[in-house]
Description:
The complex is a heterodimer. By secondary structure, chain A is mainly alpha-helical.
Amino acid sequence: MSTTLLNQEHHERFDRLQLAALVGLMIIGTLFVYSATMANPVMAAVPWYDQAWLRQLVWYALGIGAGAALCLLDYHILARWSFVAYWATIFCLFVVLIPHIGSMRFGARRWIDLGPFQFQPSEFAKLAFILALAHFLSRPADELRLPGNFWKGIGLLLLPFALTLKEPDLGSALVLLPTGLVMMYVAGTPKRYLLKLVGAVGLLAALFLVDVVFVPPGWWQISMEPYQRDRLLVYFGRNYTDFASPNAAPAQLQRLRQQQLDDAYNVRQALISVGSGGLTGKGWRQGTQNALGYLPRAVAHNDFIFSVIAEEEGFVGSLLVLALYALVLFTGLRIAGQARDRLGRLVAVGVVTLIFSHVFINIGMNIRIMPVTGVPLPLLSYGGSSVLGSLIAVGLMQNVHIYRKGY
Amino acid sequence: MLIFDELKKNDPQLRLVAVVLASGLAVLLAGLWWVQIVSAREYESHLETQSYRTVRIPAVRGKILDRNGRVLAENHPQYNLGLYLDDLRKQFDAAYGQSLARMRTVQEQRIAAEEKKLGHPLTKVERRQFALTPEQREQLHEQARFRVASDVVRQVSERLGQPLQLNAAVFDRHYEARRALPYPLLTNLDNTQIARFEEQYTGTLGLNLDLQPVRIYPFGKTAGHLLGYLQRDDSSKQGEDAYFNYYLPDYRGMVGIEAGCDAELRGRAGTEAVLVNNLGYRQSVNILNPSEPGQNVVLTLDMDIEEAATQSLERQQGADVRAAVVVMDVRTGDVLAMVSSPSVDPDYAANDPAYLADPKLRPQINRATQENYAPGSIFKPIVGLAALEAGLDPNAIVDNPGYVYVGRRHITDLAPPGQYNLRRAIIFSSNTYFITVGLRAGIENLVRMAEKFHFGERTGLPTRQETPGIFPTSKQVSSTDWHDGDSANICIGQGEMAVTPMQMAVAYAAIANGGTILWPRLVERIEPQGPASGEAVINYPTAVVRDHLGVDARHLKILRDAMLAETQEGTGQAAQVAGLQICGKTGTAQVMNSRNQEIDRTTWFASFAPYENPRYAVVVMMEGRTFWGATCAAIAHDIYGEIVKKANPGAPKNLARAN
């Protein structure tokens, strides 16, 4: 089977436009991971074979390999194993929460240490979730009218959502919501269920935000990590001092103000980077925000890689990145439209929505239309799990394309 | 076309998803457009304010030169050794790492001890009390930085052979406030130190020599009053950037030429932008706005004469003598010398503050222009001129019994009793004669004459050291409060009037040059520092006429003849110089206190030469009760001697006559 798939005559089976866009994104990713890390003298001093851009290239290669390998099997076969994958990732998500297994970084337990590298189960949980939900929703539309099936679907969504939230990884949890919702919608879940669901989610989200942003201390508050609350407060422009106890000393208020400035720092520096890029940018490796370390070095090459691109290539560069993502997304929708069956259609739509959610949240936080959450930019942000996950997701989409109608 | 494909298929769900995706991307696009295109400038300015520190770079101050190009004030390069903190960052970090490791070991030992005491491993919460607080970390950082910097300083100290000490508090303050600038380690290195540094340290990280111009005055205290002094002032003047993060030392003239020509001397300060990283360390430096050097000021002063006058005063009367000398070119108004004693050092910090504050010596005032003095007898030629113009016959005889009564007031006359005409009265300085003819001519005529001489008005020098003097107006003298006694005082240069030595020089120059009152000129021209700069030279016009006396030339000749006789036969003989005929007049005025007791005297010698074709006016004034006219004339003698020597170095005896 493998020989036939890789045969020359079958080459046009891939969606070449999408692949071209992906290659474009990977080139940009390599270039700007290079630019973002080489400006840092500490990172630049690392031997070449250990540098971030090369590691990123290796991850690309591994990801392409994994994605291609997935294309060897018909997605129906994959779907049959999807619940195994789903429960395996759920298991991993549990395991990562256990203190001595999941490794702690930046106050969150998101990684499983495997010696030479660490992996982030939430990245793979997203994929397993898409596959499992698609498999579940691909049953005849009539069955979806049953409330039991609706609630099973919700359960499939909430389990990884809650576990990821617990890590805590708000961003990765949040992207599951639109992905699940859109898949359910496209599968043909009755409107009344969906409207209720959207209403309930909206209401909960609103209550949550009101609690976090407006309720003074002393009242009942949702328990969450302090930094998460702070990020939301920063996003909604609230003063920390409003949340201090009424008899706080001036020194403490001053400390809160300083802390607010520090917390707002990333957002502010990202905005300055993006804004000062202007129309055409400062040129590759010429961005001062990154080079001088104003853009925090820990995040410049991963969560805030877009700021580096936007600063160095300007609006033109931003436009190019958006255009490449648009190509990936709309070719994805085309794949969904041409899919052989509802399973393929749901897998493609799920992957498209997942990528879109990442792109929207990540770029949005760079220009302050979204709060800061640790969501990587697919294929551009440095990071093995994210790159592998993205490429495997794209592989799934290509798989649907390969086994589309008429083939 | 991709979206349209979907639309054609009439697939409502996918169509909605496509619309949502497209609008999401459109929102991002709009946001990016807003941030990167519409608000780009705003964010650029944010970027600049956070990553640039501007430094004000003062311009190189212009020189001050005398009329022959001799330098009175210039700048010398001073080499300062600076410690560049940005180069030491790695060492700071390494040192911090070491102290942190050491600290951790200590903490581990303490934890182990604690565990032993409690008999069980500490829990997480219990361990927390052994963690380092941010304050402790900051303190470790501070100590690490100080250790690294002290090491460097100790090495430098050994190699340069100069004991150096780093003050922790000062160093830390510099680190916090001026991190982007080098820390000044050693100022004003001498040549040996510079050589040693260049041998051993060129290219070494963290150390560099910075150049800073320092103002020096090669003539020391000579002409110190005239030059004035500078004071630290970093503020910007018009046409310069107003706000800077850092200022390098700049100076502003407070008084004298340094103040009067400050705008020209100072030039325009420039701006240097230091790019700093997020920790505030210097990354690179570029000049945003180069400074424009100040211009040179060329004075009319002749330093030979200035020095001769200064040295003569010091040699004959000592450095503490309260005196002033003005030498002026009677044809052009050029001030050739202006001396005030006791002298001050234009390098203000070099002066002894106690000496400066001495209430009797008052070294800070420029006695040539800044203080009111009664002219005494040297005012008599002007009284004589007013009387002549009012119709006095110069040969008419006035009988001097040795005193004169004005009303019931008795005024003694030190001139020997006898019969006096104008000539004799000037030679012997007869009070009786001048009071008699002055009162006869009328005080109104005297006031009118004084107005033409512009007594009671400033002479318009740029030094900011001028007093206008005092002279009654015609309104004052016509009031009922004015008595003949007051007029009599004016006739002998006392009472309700006061002059400055500069005013007397202008007046005597007018008598010498045929009746033209000139504006004294102190600044000859202002020229660019570098001849290549292409800036225009500003020449100040010479011989600018302020007024004409409009008197009969014969009357002036009568005065000149009498004043020539005074230095040949009278009290001014001490001024005589071989080969030069000098016209002069001595004078002594009493300084009275409010109870009409003499507390001091002002002694004068006012003169001009050569008699045939006058060129130089020399006025010497001294304060003190031990002096008399000849004391001042002796100073004038030295000055004329220098003039003669200068005019004909080959044949000093006959030079002046050639004029």
